[in-house]
């Protein structure tokens, strides 16, 4: 992939590469893209959670139910 950037953006990227101790401009661009992918995954998970319906209260009774399920499935 080839990118054409104005001098001001090229200077900014060069400074970021130097400040972060990266080997090349492409490492900086790769880091930006990976960061955006991670943000998108988090957004997708938040939307999935929102759309999954009402949640269950997480209180003492909830944790007691979890402990009971573990006790029931524990090998004897």
Summarize the structure in words.
With 76 residues, the protein is an all-alpha fold. The chain has a domain at 7-52. It contains three helices and no strands. The mean pLDDT is 95.
| Major β-sheet annotation | none
Characterize the overall form.
Answer: elongated
- How much is the average pLDDT? 95
Give the tally of β-strands: 0
Distance between the termini: 60 Å
Structural classification: mainly alpha
* Alpha-carbon Rg, integer: 24 Å
Kindly estimate the percentage of residues that lie in beta strands according to DSSP: under 5%
Number of H/I helices: 3
- What percentage of residues falls in helices of 4 or more residues? over 70%
- Uncertain parts: none
SSE arrangement, N to C: HHH
